[in-house]
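Notes from the 1:1 (GR / supervisor)

We went over the backlog. Supervisor wanted to see one worked example end to end before approving the batch request, so GR pasted a single chain during the call. The sequence is below; no edits were made to it. Supervisor asked that the structure be written out right there so they could see what the output format looks like.
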Amino acid sequence: MAQVSAELAFTGERFVPGAKGEIWVEHWHRYHFARRWAAGKRVLDVACGEGYGSALLAGSAARVTGVDISEHAVAHARASYGELGNAVFECASCTRLPLPDASIDLAVSFETLEHIEEQERFLDELARVLTPGGILLLSCPNKLEYSDKRGFANEFHVKELYREELAKLVDERFGHVDWYGQRPTFFSLIAPEKAQPPQAQLVEVSEAQPDAASSSLSAPLYFVLAASRERASLEAVPPALSVLSDRDDWVHRDYEKVMGMLERSARHAHDLQRLVEQREAELAGLAAELEKLRAAITLQDAALTAQQALVHATATAHAAQVQALDAEIDRRRGWRWWLRLPLVRLGLLE
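Structure output shown during the call:
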């Protein structure tokens, strides 16, 4: 089977083989599910994309026609699966299928409806190309679970549907419908070792009420419908529980890897929190020391200011004394002072 290549890159919406994540489980499971109806039939795969699903159906179908609106995707499908003698790929709109009336036994359209506005015209085209007893296998997101409850908006979706809206579209064109639900999750699979078909049992419980079981999938993420204008066509392939089990257990291993990363991140966050707390304690100690230093500096500044004032006062007093001495010296240098000195000594002058 072809792998992801530079020729047809994964856009995040159109699935291509090799893309990782639960998207591959969802898409591959639908086509394996469709193989139950495909044996010996003329099959139409609408919005075939890369062509992997058409190629899978060609393994048991008489002939498969894959149709896609993307010329690039069709060219890639022809190059990748051109060696198949019973599969052809055509570029066309899903509302103008390049096929005659009543020329198809099984029409497959997975995750197409929500991408277009002309949903009624698309269903009309599918009804046109199917034989009166032909089967339509259709899937689309359950808007309630896919978008509403998850608060999710898929940028590639034009018009998602609730169950009653989808039922109205299909019931108006096909009188008989068997409903299935698809939800990717983890399963504990118990199956017989030998190859005979097992009796199916579905038990759905919740962790909160493990003793309250139901035998149906209560909240499917995707609707999967088998529809026909003849009830006998649906009864020819009886309903069955279909489980896609990943041999490599990729989803669970990825879950374990992510959980391990989360645990390591939690431990790292705990270590960082402890380090932050230690650093905060050290900073608090440093802040206390800083306050002590600031108080000591304040005291030293006050003492220095007092010393400076004392020095200034002393200097001022000394300067006054020096000025008085200088004045006395200047006075004694004059001749009048020397003439008066004998009289002063005799007490005749002060």
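Supervisor's comment: Residues 22-187+211-238 form a domain with the Rossmann fold fold (CATH 3.40.50.150).
Batch request approved.
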